[in-house]
């Protein structure tokens, strides 16, 4: 079901996390590691992953549910917050479609906007779906009491639908689902700021987000056991060992290291042999 229909109606946060993971996997192509989708996801500051149903005849109505996560300062991802979305649109459109969306939030300001209860979005949408094959493009602007934030969407569509529209939608925090999972009342802002660790029920989603496709070089956390400077690593390899050998002794036979005179290549062993002969 990774690339097909998903239930657009709200359910437990655990189910929403599993659904989000399947949607993310449907957009990743392991055979093309540097695809456009991967590059976009690597630089995202936040992701709203939702499934929706939409019906239209000139005007349209859309409803859906999903989760919202944000990138933290150390490059990792926050605990998820459950959200629901509803909206209306106007334009030349007709049909019914089920759509899996990844709304990409490219800046921290976008995340702050969508972390607020009842943020509004104004988007332009063009969509075409014939059975299990369909595509939908969407770009827009979100607004809340904390300002404006840009967003755009990656999506896959199922159904029978065609048209172009301008839509007004609202993203609402699903507080009941959050409270049921986290066992206390929390705001989306608290979750997205990293104040709460991801729960066990979100383990599948967090494992999915730990894939390298969601981390650019500047977001990857270095291994503290490894030197950060490659030249340092080389120097450590050359000078380590019981003999504590000099770097020049590791050169191939007949090749002189650049900048060193030939006399510097004589080893301590050769000196001892000379002394023995003289004795």
UniProtKB/TrEMBL annotation:
InterPro entries: SH3_domain_YSC84-like (IPR051702), SYLF_SH3YL1-like (IPR033643), Ysc84_actin-binding (IPR007461). GO terms for cellular component: actin cortical patch. Pfam families: Ysc84. Residues 240-279 are annotated as: Disordered. GO terms for biological process: actin cortical patch localization; actin filament bundle assembly. One of its GO terms (molecular function) is phosphatidylinositol binding. It comes from the Eukaryota. Residues 270-279 have a biased composition (Basic and acidic residues). Residues 87-210 form the Ysc84 actin-binding domain. Residues 256-269 have a biased composition (Low complexity). This is Ysc84 actin-binding domain-containing protein. It comes from Talaromyces stipitatus (strain ATCC 10500 / CBS 375.48 / QM 6759 / NRRL 1006).
């Amino acid at each position: 079901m990774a690339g097909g229909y998903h239930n657009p109606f709200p359910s437990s946060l655990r189910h929403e996390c599993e659904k989000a993971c399947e949607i993310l996997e449907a957009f990743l192509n392991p055979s093309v590691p540097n695809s456009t989708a991967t590059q976009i996801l690597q630089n995202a500051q936040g992701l709203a992953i939702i499934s929706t149903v939409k019906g239209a005849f000139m005007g349209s109505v859309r409803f859906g549910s999903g989760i919202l996560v944000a990138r933290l300062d150390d490059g990792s991802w926050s605990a998820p917050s459950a959200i629901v979305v509803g909206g209306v649109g106007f334009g030349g459109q007709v049909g019914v479609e089920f759509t899996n969306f990844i709304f990409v939030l490219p800046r921290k300001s976008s995340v702050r906007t969508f972390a607020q209860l009842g943020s509004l979005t104004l988007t332009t949408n063009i969509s075409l779906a014939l059975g299990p094959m369909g595509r939908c493009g969407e770009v827009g602007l979100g607004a809340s009491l904390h300002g404006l934030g840009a967003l755009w969407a990656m999506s896959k569509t199922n159904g029978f639908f065609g048209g172009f529209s301008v839509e007004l939608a609202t993203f609402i925090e699903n507080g009941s689902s959050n409270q049921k999972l986290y066992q206390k009342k929390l705001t989306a802002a608290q979750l997205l700021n990293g104040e709460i660790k991801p729960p066990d029920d979100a383990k599948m989603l967090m494992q999915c987000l730990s894939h390298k496709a969601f981390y650019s070089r500047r977001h990857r956390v270095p291994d503290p056991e490894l030197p950060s400077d490659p030249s340092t690593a080389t120097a450590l390899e050359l000078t380590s060992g019981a003999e504590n050998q000099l770097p020049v002794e590791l050169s191939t036979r007949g090749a002189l290291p650049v900048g060193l005179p030939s006399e510097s290549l004589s080893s301590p062993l050769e000196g001892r042999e000379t002394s023995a002969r003289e004795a």
